[in-house]
Fold these 3 entries.
Entry 1:
Amino acid sequence: MRSPRLRPLLVPALLCALAVVAAGPTDAADDGDTEVSAQVMRLYEDAALATRRYEAGRQEAEAQRARARRFEELLDRERQEIAVLHHDLGRIARSQYRDGGGLPLTAQIIFADDFGELMRGQHVFSRTTVALNNAVDKSRRAEARLAADEAKATAVRRRLERRSAELAALKQDIEQKLEEARWQLQGQADASVAAGACRGAVRLDQPRQAPAGAWVTPVAVYELSAGFGSGGSRWANGHTGQDFAVPIGTPVRAVGAGRVVKVSCGGPFGIEVVIEHPGGYYTQYAHLAAVTVDQGDAVEVGQWIGQSGTSGNSTGPHLHFEVRVTPETGSAVDPVSWLAARGVPLG
């Protein structure tokens, strides 16, 4: 039988436990959260593969289209040469008719002043006619071969274009699924921010990478948007970081090796991660949709620490990246020059 004296102690203990859960990250994300994050990453890979296959097919179809155009140009040239040869034959025939006065060859022989000259002329005419006829036949054979080649090239090009259309449809379908998954992931992030409780780390399988140096950009592919110190209604004293415009779900990387000192949800930065690096600097990654690390984790350069989003005070999907001299806001330095000094220029 339980002692009744335990009940007064249980109530404050439970309240303290609930407060801890609400304020900080949970131990781990549930299976549903993990599945959405993993689905976004799989769809990213599928979309990249579909894009590469579509571009390869499109380029192959374009090359085949250019080949068919070359065959068509060669055919036009052959037809023009045949027309010229026919014209030459007609010209020679007309000339021979004029020189002979329209008389049959027997009559020309009877009335010829110089029989040898006449026969030499007839011989030259015959040889010329044979040569022209041979040239016409040769051109016609070339025309037939080119026509066959053109037909083959056109057939191949049409097959490639049909395949390109299929790949384009597949690419569009994957991108639509990816967009839906992105916003599902963002919906989970918004729910976490509203509750003020992080869902915990989503452990994603990531490819093994070998960074070229000790530092990298926080995202692999990006467009720079708001810069350090820029003005705006959302910042009282100027923008404190560098924004990278990227779609929701983009893998966010640790710019250098270090230790995670903060994972939090809520507030103007939404879901954020702060990493301490050797040398006394800290980097912050904000407006995330999911995190893949927990507070206290050691991270390597280029390791995924989260997925970008638009949580918190954000007007659209992007990563807010800061470099600080303390783990807290208000100690930021220009991240562009800081990365450049470490061999990572931002283009």
Entry 2:
Amino acid sequence: MSQTIVITGASSGFGALTARALASQGHTVYAGMRETIGRNAPQVQAVADYSAEHGVDLRAIELDVNSQDSIDAAVARIEADRGTIDVLIHNAGHMVTGPAEAFTPEQLAELYDVNVLSTQRVNRAVLPGMRRRGEGLVVWVSSSSVKGGTPPYLAPYFAAKAGMDALAVSYSTELTRWGIETSIVVPGAFTSGTNHFAHSGRPADDAVVADYETKYAGLMEQVSGKLAALEPADADVSSVAAEIARIVALPRGERPYRVIIDPSDDGSAEVSAVADRIHREFYERIDLPDLLTIRK
């Protein structure tokens, strides 16, 4: 069944791959991105070219997750065009690398804005329509760093993704009685095929960075190299998009709560299994097990 899907941060990486995979399944997919008439104009053209070449319904749309006005305008346009938004995929995010102390509080606030607060803005625009209909699917693209291995010099990004994941967990039980499903997709540290590391931000305090270099010289390059060495040769970043497409295609009420795609196996699957089991058991102890799943 064809659905109307919105993906944030779909100009590149997981978002762009997922948009194409879902459009190829026959869905109408809105690839959200900012600066569609500026720096992302080539990505807008690439979306149009892919849609025409493959005969699919893939559309770029201006959607800046840091702006409520931009989000509201995009959602209003989609709902005017299609009537409903069936699936929302929270994919927008940004990575920074460097010693945690060298980032200013303002930099951390900006990072949390992109990775965490953005999801709240988009939810407040999209969820009312889903609640009125009594159905929908929200997919959150998390990170294995939330519960798995946490190499150094990535602390602000890890903290932001942990905040987003925690928000997803809480939202999941607050949406079930509305008939809205939640799936949390957890990619591992893919070191190729995305622009996370290549476009990562850097600390503003160069003096502190220099101090850390006296004890941790070249550490970020070492971390990048070690992560790349852990990644199997056959690791394919498109497997994340394929898994999201599989989840969307599943019948209502049968979507998984959490799926981990981590070829490097940093331990996230083991820790998540325990955490999610405790989550379920706690809701049973407080006599609210119905909040764990939607009613078909």
Entry 3:
Amino acid sequence: MATTLVLPRTTASTPETAPRTHKALRHLGPNWYASVMGTAIVANAGATLPYQLPGQRVVCQIVWALSAAALAVLLTARAGHWIHHRDQARAHLLDPAVAPFYGCLSMALLAVGGGTLIVGKDLIGTGAAVAVDAVLFTAGTAVGLVMAVAVPYLMVVRHKVEANQATPVWLLPLVAPMVSAALGPLLIPHLPAGQPREAMLLACYAMFGISLFGTLLMLPLVFGRLIVNGPLPLALTPTLFLVLGPLGQSTTAVNQLADVAPQSIGAPYAGALGALAVVYGVPVTGFALLWLALATGMLIRAARDGMGFGMTWWALTFPVGTCVTGAAGLARHTGLTAFAWLASALFLALLTAWLLAAAHTLRGLAAGRLLAAPR
């Protein structure tokens, strides 16, 4: 699904000289890709739940189509942002509070691409779904790997940050390769047997390692900031749920990779990778539930203190969705009903968060608040 935008060559515009039709794009940041991620994960997680209700897959198809349309619109709008407001785009890259959101571009591409193979194939056919996912997976992985290096590099050499500024947002560019590791296995059965499948499998494990160890370096800074400096500002409180992203996504990744290991790599590795799915996934899921309880408590506290809606509310969607797919994978590999029920309960929480975030986003767009200059 693609949208073509033909624009005349032009120089970068300032807020005063930009045409009125382009002014709304000036403050359209990369954080908006989180809305695409959050929508796509509803479709992907809902279609892979252990329990399926009548009509559930049809609803997931509709939500996937919505995420694909949103991605096309947002890619076009962001292209307009870079064309007409290059000064603001560069300022975003040099802002330590905004630059990490460039990881969301990668994850939006990957999530919609994965959804194309999970549910989109019912609408466009398997062949077309494989082609679309291959393109989006390749683009998303390339962007993710670049941002996993570029954003930390900018934080070291250009951004002026202090320890008390650490937030879970810093994790975003590091999580992107883990999303590739979790969704890459969908393409493996469509690759030729032999080295292509094995290479793809091991590449996904390599990206798993990039993200895992990067997260292990960054997470102590985030938790240390909370312990030493107290709660995050009200508007940033929902970003605490971003910590669930690498936890749930890594659990999803090891389970998805274990599914395709027997057809990709020989013994004894295939069996060992199947065991890793449970040995790694269960304790990480335990920690994810602990963090979920902590983040929920902080969210309730912030709501009582008057936290209003912001685009950070979308942090309540995709990370929780990765925990749904992680629990569903553990249910598949352990056969335990407890994990199936956990996946279902988390999905209900995901659906509630998505409905709230989507409704407030549409309302904010209609009122013009969300694209207004920050105060």
